Amino acid sequence: MSEQRQRGSNQAGVRGGRRASGEPVPGTTARRRLTVVSGPSGVGKSSVVGELRALDPDIYFSISTTTRAPREGEVDGAHYHFVDRPTFDRMVADGQFLEYAEFAGNCYGTPRAPVERALDQGRPAVLEIELQGARQVREAMPDAQLVMLLPPSWGELVDRLTGRGTEAMEAVQARLSEAERELAAASEFDAQVVNADVKTAAQELLDLVRGPSGSQD
């Protein structure tokens, strides 16, 4: 009986390739943690994440599933996973998404399985999404690390959005209102990175991504 209890104790002390103390178990690959990157429009999320890709090619970057039609040059499985609405709805019903949302009549979601697989293989994973999606991921995967990308100042963000010159002022004002709402939620995030310089911000983000793995119950 004592031998059986001892075996049970050893098994309970090892989860996801780590001891209860958090140290990796010899001969296993420690599960990594998902990092979610969010921030308001104009803060430079795509630029920073693009630089992050160049800094560490081993990072897994999630590919979203969408119901919208492919645009010219987009490749299924590389830019998005393109599916029809019934397929997307079935995936939602089956719990296959970490997060999902609908914008302008099109649905977008983050498949759970590829992210889980990368983490189990010991690869860090990064997901670039908006505030609504980040909150959903927090519920679906509580040990995920949420990082808010911030502008150097509010004035700088206004300059970036108005300087594009590609949208009517009404659309810019809508983006600024949304940005205020998103920045007000910064305290919900585990870390904040100021994007005053893309390379510097990407390096700070990389340090967070490579940080200690979260425990997985």
TrEMBL record:
Chief location of this protein within or outside the cell: cytoplasm
Compartments in which it is found: Cytoplasm
Chain sites annotated for binding ATP: 39-46
CC terms in the record's Gene Ontology section: cytosol
Domain of life of the native organism: Bacteria
GO molecular function: ATP binding; GMP kinase activity
CDD domains on file: GMPK (cd00071)
Domain Guanylate kinase-like as annotated: residue spans: 32-210
Reaction catalysis annotation: GMP + ATP = GDP + ADP
Record PROSITE patterns: GUANYLATE_KINASE_1, GUANYLATE_KINASE_2
Location of region: Disordered: 1-40
EC number in record: 2.7.4.8
Keywords: ATP-binding, Cytoplasm, Kinase, Nucleotide-binding, Transferase
Family note: Belongs to the guanylate kinase family.
Function field: Essential for recycling GMP and indirectly, cGMP.
NCBIfam families: guanyl_kin
Protein name as it appears in the record: Guanylate kinase
Source organism: Prauserella isguenensis
